[in-house]
Amino acid sequence: MSVMSEAVFPLANPKQTKKLCEICQKPAHIQCTRCRVTFYCDVTHQQADWNSIHEKVCELMISVRTPAPFCSFKAERDIYQMQTLKRLEHLRELAHATAKNWVSEGKYSEAVPAAQLVLHCAIDIYGPEALELVPAYLLLAEVSIGLGSLSQAENCLSQAEWMVRKNPGCSRTVLHLLHRTLGRLCSAKEDYSSALLHFANDVYYSSEEFGLDSLVTAEGYFLMANVFMKQEKTDISNSLYEEVTRTWHAHLSQLMESYSQKEHESAQYFDVAECSEVNQMFSVMLEAQQQDVNTHPAYSTTLSHSLEQRALLSHSLAMFWFLCNNHKKALDFGKMAKEFIQQCEHNSLAESIQSLIQRAEEHVEQEQSPVPHH
């Protein structure tokens, strides 16, 4: 039985007199011998929590779960409470980042305890019915979808929808995230009509909040395109993929310009989870373009257009990996982009691609050069 199938997501504050398992909320019989404030029903759940998140946060748990010392002055109690809330927020952010990293690697079982800790922290900070709990429930829903536990995902999304309905003035950010996750669930259930409706709402709210040319909105278009691809409506899906590619190419080009102006080229533009997600997205679009070329006759206008799109995609990937300091991959995709652009009638990207290839080659040579001994 998986950890997710046994998990129970709390709807009330988990701080109770009776000791409950951190994973499943059943009566606990095992205590973490390091922090002594975290409990489990069995060794399996203790190991799962340790592997997922507890190893990173064991000491932090002490400061947020140890009962407050007696203070006779209200000012001292207020200071202690404020410090505890700051620690809880730090713990919540760390658990959220860890869960997203597991998700980006496709390790959904490992993500469960970290995602649950996000919810525990949010409840402790905001209370059991606050709108701020919605992102935690959406994260748990995303993990559940990844595990194929669609009924569990529905439960999490029901909680999120209920909280949104209770707060009609919630932000567009919350609404776009809610519809995006609902779209993912409907897509997993092969209810493509509902999925497209939710993704359309996702695009609407994200464009209202971040703009039509934002990467957030582009991801909504990408998810819509995936659904159309499943419906074998390739013309629509490819059109949406092109919109995503143009948005990312413009964004990465701007980052490359700022990168070249830095004295020290050491800025981190993408974290581990983002690198994995962006690479997967571009890989899907490259494959779609390849299939489009294979299904159309040579020397057609469609082929020429596809080559331009593949050049744009390859150039985007080259810039992306360059910014991620993987210069070997940047060089490989740069050369791929050069091959595509040389076959196109319009080669306005040729100079930019060649410049990137040269810069990537310089970095690769430096990385391969032996380190001098002093």
TrEMBL record:
Keywords: Metal-binding, Zinc, Zinc-finger. Residues 21-58 form the MYND-type domain. The keyword Transcription does not apply. The keyword Zinc applies. It comes from the Eukaryota. Pfam families: zf-MYND. Gene3D superfamilies: 6.10.140.2220, Tetratricopeptide repeat domain. PANTHER family: ZINC FINGER MYND DOMAIN-CONTAINING PROTEIN 12. This is MYND-type domain-containing protein. It comes from Silurus meridionalis (Southern catfish).
